[in-house]
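Colleagues,

For the teaching module next term, I've prepared a clean inverse folding example: a structure given as tokens, and then the sequence designed for it. I'd like students to try predicting residues themselves before seeing the answer, so please don't circulate the second half yet.
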């Protein structure tokens, strides 16, 4: 960052959406305290947004408003740029040009960091600038700072989190209030939790962006979004929430990056968590990240995962770091190429990942079927913890079978599921969820 004087740090903000307004409001509300802690005043001098007509919950009288972001990026009197428009373009060009102009950048753009972080961090490094991205993962929770700085002494075993506030808000409301999917999605949108395209939330893409970033931090691997296994929450059936509950589990949308003997697994999907798991009771828009590391042992970080002020808190935390450590040598090293000394650890295909599992399917009420199922599980050497038949709750003819397996390779389970599904008296496709145990 080039500082022009010892006066205020001059900031340009691009994007006046939920987080942009939150950032301006929190900066203005806590201005004196922030200045005291940072040692300099922080002044947002210009704000760019394509839409300058919509009424917003923020006082814009003191800033220069423009619909031309390049007037901020190319303004030699602006020290730091905050990018809060999201998406790939034009955000990527805005950030790269800001860095080339010697301005450090703060962003909440997880999609961009997950997909183009390697290029962005290379350009930042070439220009002795910093890119702060704490707000990109888990809203208010300082998980990036914690993992990169506070846990620097540790070898990390896994990081497992609930990192999409919208999905967690929706699953909680669907479970506790029996509300339907569309109603709770609308609620999450109106509260400012959801992405511009909420499919990013419910299909798991947003969580995959976040776990891409956390995996790179935890294991020193390149940012490689394309290698993440992703499933969303659209297909979760309420009957499985009920069955899981009766077996001692909660269904959550989980993102996980873990070091295993055969490589690194990076995956996002609904999972059954034993009720005593630290993530099982994380509800609503709350996010939580559970880290296991060799020196500290288990650690749980939790807090608001989305929303204007919580995310603004992370944006301003990064801004403060940039102001305090404006010399390139003072920075935390960039992610990606500059931090790849541990490459050689490959990211595993999902087929090679081991998990415990929950299976559910319906069968005809006839003797011998369960024995056939048991035979398939045995011939594939799948260890089981629990097999149970229940009368159908609908009162119809037939029975539901619930199976809990112990840890088994994904490809082995998929093969067995195919064999079970083709048994003559199995009436429904096999529903499957992975189970995340606390100690695995
Ligand atoms: N749509 C995101 C979420 C916003 O619901 O978690 C915060 O990244």
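(Answer key — instructors only)
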């Amino acid at each position: 960052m080039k500082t022009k004087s010892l006066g205020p740090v001059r900031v340009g903000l691009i994007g006046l959406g939920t987080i942009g307004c939150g950032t301006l409001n929190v900066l203005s509300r806590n201005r004196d305290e922030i200045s005291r802690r940072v040692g300099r005043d922080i002044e947002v001098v210009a704000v760019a947004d394509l839409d300058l007509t919509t009424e917003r919950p923020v006082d814009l009288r003191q800033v220069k408003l423009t619909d031309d972001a390049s007037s901020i990026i190319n303004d030699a009197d602006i020290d730091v740029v905050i990018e809060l428009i999201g998406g790939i373009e034009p955000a990527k060009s805005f950030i790269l040009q800001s860095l080339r102009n010697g301005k450090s950048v703060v962003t909440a753009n997880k999609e961009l960091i997950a997909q183009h972080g390697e290029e962005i961090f290379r350009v930042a490094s070439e220009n002795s600038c910093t890119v702060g991205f704490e707000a990109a993962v888990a809203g208010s929770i300082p998980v990036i700072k914690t993992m990169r700085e506070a846990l620097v002494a540790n070898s990390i075993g896994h990081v497992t989190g609930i990192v999409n506030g919208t999905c967690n808000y929706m699953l909680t409301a669907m479970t506790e209030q029996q509300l339907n999917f569309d109603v709770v999605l609308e609620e999450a949108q109106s509260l400012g939790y959801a992405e511009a395209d909420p499919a990013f939330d419910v299909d798991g893409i947003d969580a995959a962006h976040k776990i891409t970033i956390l995996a790179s931090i935890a294991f020193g691997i390149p940012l490689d979004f394309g290698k993440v296994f992703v499933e969303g929450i659209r297909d979760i059936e309420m009957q499985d929430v009920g069955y899981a509950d009766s077996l001692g589990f909660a269904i959550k949308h989980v993102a996980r990056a873990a070091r295993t003997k055969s490589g690194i697994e990076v995956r996002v999907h609904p999972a059954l968590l034993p009720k005593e798991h630290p993530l099982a009771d994380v509800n609503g828009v709350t996010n939580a990240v559970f880290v296991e590391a060799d020196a500290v042992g288990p650690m749980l970080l939790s807090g608001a995962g989305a929303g204007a002020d919580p995310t603004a808190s992370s944006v301003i935390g990064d801004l403060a770091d940039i102001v305090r450590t404006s010399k390139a040598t003072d920075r935390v090293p960039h992610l990606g190429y500059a931090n790849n000394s541990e490459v050689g650890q490959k990211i595993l295909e999902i087929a090679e990942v081991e998990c415990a599992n929950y299976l559910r399917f319906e069968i005809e009420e006839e003797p011998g079927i369960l024995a056939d199922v048991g035979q398939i599980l045995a011939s594939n050497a799948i260890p089981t913890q629990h097999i149970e038949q229940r009368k159908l709750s609908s009162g119809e003819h037939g029975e539901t079978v619930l199976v809990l397996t112990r840890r088994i390779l994904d490809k082995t389970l998929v093969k067995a599921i195919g064999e079970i599904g083709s048994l003559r008296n199995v009436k429904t496709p096999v529903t499957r969820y992975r189970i995340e145990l606390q100690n695995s």
